Each structure stands twice: as structure tokens, then as C-alpha cells.
């Protein structure tokens, strides 16, 4: 019998790959000064902040309307009422103190006229509007309901391609567009804000996007903006554009009052002429003569 050969065991040497180093760039350094502030590198890049506040004398309905806008903008901040006697340029300093680069300011005149300013505090421009036909969310009680803090889709009319409308459109995009990855926002879209130009005025509508059939249900609020002027600076500067069709509310009220006075005088004259014609009517004169004869017979 032959000798049995020994089985040679081959040892396989597996070369292990060196462990990959984890990315620790997002972590603070191991050694740093005690007064050094570490800046996190997050996904929130567009840090737009909007200051929303008003002047003294604003009505209750307008205040509720302003609160509706604040609830729509998770990147907004509030401020106490601004004194009407102070200059509007002070608003720029207030916005810088509050670390805001955009402003929505509501101004009240004569306790019945509401004006809205939107402005870019850093380098302008700013636009002044006359706000009309205000309907708050609590007043209408519509069926639409979006999640608070969700991001909106902005839809603009084709007329916004004109030069002065394009400036207003860019301000609306920066103010009403919720920044991506904002700490107080939700990472999805569930409502649409539309801006439509009709008769030289901007009509604002807010709709919810329904999940079942992708239809729209209005949420509110509703309002119409009549643009007055566009300035190159923030609450100051040269007037870049002025609405030629705009008429002040005071002039409109005086014109309406004049028409009502003319209508009253015209109606008074018509009543006098009608009475004069009735006095000269033959049947009335005959009845007067019959009444006089009857009185004489009784005497």
C-alpha cells in the first residue's frame, strides 16, 4: 500500500480594507476657545425674514386681516404698533434690530383708509398699495384648511411680465414664498396663492390643494391691492413708477358727496315742478271751487 499523502491546507489571506473615515465636518472642532461661536452648516440657506406690523389707529377688521397674513408666513416676526407721527424711515432701523430684511407695514389714515407697504430693507425697492375689499378668514368661514407652516405655490398672472409689475412680483416672491428648510415650516406644499391683475389692481386669493382629486378649495383671506407708487429705496428714494389711474379715497368720497348733493337738488326741483303742475290741474281747481261753495252754503 502506498503512503497516504498529507492534505496541505492552504491558508487564504484576506486583505482587509482600511476603515473609511467618517465625515465629521459638520461637528464642532475638538479644541476651540470658550467664547468662540460655532456656526452650523444646515440646509436652510434662504434666510428671508419678514416683519409684519401696523400703525396706530388700525381698525379691528384690519388687525384680524394682518393676523391672517402673519399666520400664513412662518418666517414672519411681529412688532408693537408704530407711531404715526414718526418718519417711515425709522421702520428700516426697527427691521434691522429684529433681524428682518423684508417688511409688510399697514398704515391707517382717517380711521377708514388702509394702506400697505412692502419693502426690501437692505437695498430697496418699496411699493405702496391702497388695500380695498378686505375679507378675513374668520369672516368668510370657507371650507379650505391648510396646515400651518406649509410652503405655498405662488401663481402669477401673465400681466406681471411688464416692467413695473415684474418688480412687484419679485417682492411678492421673496415675501410670501416660505424659504426651504425653514425651522418653523413644513417640508411640503399644500396650498396655492394666486395674484391676478384685473383693472390695474392685484387680486389676492389663497386655495388649499385637496389630496383626493387635486382640486382647489379657497381658504382666505381675500383682498385687493391698488398700487400707488414704487420707490427705489426702502420707504424713501426716487419714485420709479406712479399709477396714473389712482385717485385718493378722499377725492372719491368728495366726488360721491357732490353727486349725492346734485341728486338731492335735482329731486327737490322735480318735486316743486310736480307740485306746481298739480296746482294748475283743472280737476284740482274745480274741487277747490266746489269746496268753497259748500262752505258758503253752510254759513
TrEMBL record:
Question: What is the scientific name of the source organism?
Answer: Hirondellea gigas
The molecular function terms in GO held by this entry are: rRNA binding
Parts of the chain that traverse the membrane: none
Read off the InterPro entries from this record: Brix (IPR007109), BRX1 (IPR026532)
Gene Ontology BP annotations: ribosomal large subunit assembly; rRNA processing
Q: Where in the cell is it found?
A: Nucleus, Nucleolus
Q: Give the UniProt entry's GO cellular component terms.
A: nucleolus
**Top-rank taxon, per record:** Eukaryota
Record flagged with keyword Nucleus: yes
Q: Which ranges are annotated Basic and acidic residues under compositional bias? A: 261-281
Q: Which UniProt keywords apply?
A: Nucleus, Ribosome biogenesis
**Would the keyword Nucleus be found if you checked this record's keyword annotation?**
yes
Q: Which SMART domains match?
A: Brix
Main localization category? nucleus
What is the protein named? Answer: Ribosome biogenesis protein BRX1 homolog
Annotated stretches, region: Disordered? 1-27, 261-299
Per the entry, what this protein does is: Required for biogenesis of the 60S ribosomal subunit.
Domain (Brix) spans 48-236
The family annotation for this protein states:
Belongs to the BRX1 family.
Amino acid at each position: 500500500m502506498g503512503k497516504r499523502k498529507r492534505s496541505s491546507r492552504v491558508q487564504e489571506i484576506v486583505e482587509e480594507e482600511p476603515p473609511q473615515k467618517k465625515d465629521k465636518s459638520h461637528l464642532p472642532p475638538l479644541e476651540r476657545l470658550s467664547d468662540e461661536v460655532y456656526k452650523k452648516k444646515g440646509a436652510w440657506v434662504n434666510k428671508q425674514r419678514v416683519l409684519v406690523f401696523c400703525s396706530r389707529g388700525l381698525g379691528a377688521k384690519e388687525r384680524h386681516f394682518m393676523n391672517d397674513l402673519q399666520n400664513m408666513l412662518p418666517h414672519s416676526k411681529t412688532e408693537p404698533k408704530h407711531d404715526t407721527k414718526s418718519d417711515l424711515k425709522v421702520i428700516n432701523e426697527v427691521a434691522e434690530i429684529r433681524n428682518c430684511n423684508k417688511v409688510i407695514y399697514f398704515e391707517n389714515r382717517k380711521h377708514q383708509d388702509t394702506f400697505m407697504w412692502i419693502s426690501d430693507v437692505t437695498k430697496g425697492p418699496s411699493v405702496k398699495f391702497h388695500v380695498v375689499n378686505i375679507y378675513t378668514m374668520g369672516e368668510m368661514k370657507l371650507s379650505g384648511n391648510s396646515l400651518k407652516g406649509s410652503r405655498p405655490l405662488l401663481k402669477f398672472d401673465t400681466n406681471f411680465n411688464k416692467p413695473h409689475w415684474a418688480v412687484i412680483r419679485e417682492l411678492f416672491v421673496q415675501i410670501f414664498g416660505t424659504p426651504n428648510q425653514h425651522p418653523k415650516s413644513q417640508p411640503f406644499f399644500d396650498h396655492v396663492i394666486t395674484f391676478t391683475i384685473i383693472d390695474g389692481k392685484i387680486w389676492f386669493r389663497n386655495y388649499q390643494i385637496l389630496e383626493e382629486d387635486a382640486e382647489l378649495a379657497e381658504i382666505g383671506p381675500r383682498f385687493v391691492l391698488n398700487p400707488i407708487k414704487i420707490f427705489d429705496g426702502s420707504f424713501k428714494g426716487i419714485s420709479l413708477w406712479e399709477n396714473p389711474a389712482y385717485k385718493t379715497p378722499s377725492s372719491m368720497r368728495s366726488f360721491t358727496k357732490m353727486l349725492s348733493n346734485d341728486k338731492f337738488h335735482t329731486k327737490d326741483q322735480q318735486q316743486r315742478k310736480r307740485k306746481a303742475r298739480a296746482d294748475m290741474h283743472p280737476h284740482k281747481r274745480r274741487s277747490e271751487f266746489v269746496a268753497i261753495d259748500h262752505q258758503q252754503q253752510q254759513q
